[in-house]
Write the structure tokens for this entry.
Amino acid sequence: MYLAIDIGGTKTLVALFSARGRVIKRIKIRTAKGATKFISDLKRVLTDFTKYHVDTVAVAIPGLVQKNYSVSFGNRNWPGIDLYTPIKSLFNCPIFFENDANLAALYEGSFYPGRAVFLTFSTGIGGGVVEKGQILPESNKFEPGHKIYEYNGQKLEWEDIAAASALEKYYHVDLATDLRKKVIMQDIANRIALGLPYIIKKYSPDVIVLGGPLGKIFKRYSKFLPDFKVKFVRPKKPLESVIYGCYLYAKQKSK
């Protein structure tokens, strides 16, 4: 069995998968603001999984991974913490860490031949680049949300234009998934389209997966996207791409 840990900015999800990808057990907790408290919370939750035979553990990090165990979180002021040791104290098996966007790309790209770019439109805009079931090296430097574009007479980062959080702020809604009007869907398509030519030119994808909260409403706005001669698709697991990517990564590493 494979243990998957998705550490997010607000929530952390732990799930145990069978060899065939069935979820056997899952627990979700709030991600503590302090590193010490978070590690304590995580160990407490992981103790519930020690009764199972775990072959491999995969951990998704919203930031940089160095030497597989020293991690730097992009959404927390944690300069670098050791998560390997507390996890290893509970599970005597291989443990691997990877960026969360890369893992989401790994899962969502696994359904398509050729090269796939995964984009997540959430608090910001992130993603990854995969091909033939492997995370490509260029994926580690993939930061499309920080590219500057002109929109409504202003020069802004793409994620300040098209991220779900930007849409929620602009349209004064709690959740971008609640947006429905045709004129709004046209606007969302225009905002997303700003960053696509650069991605298509630089990475030459066969398919682009539009994920995150905007992945849930893909059918509402996708028909308004320009014809870029690239296939655009909805994610298979719009809000759980990362945890399923952990499962795939753990399975790959166990071979």
Observations:
- The chain has two domains: 2-99, 112-233.
- The first helix runs from residue 35 to 46.
- The CA atoms of residues 48 and 126 lie 32 Å apart.
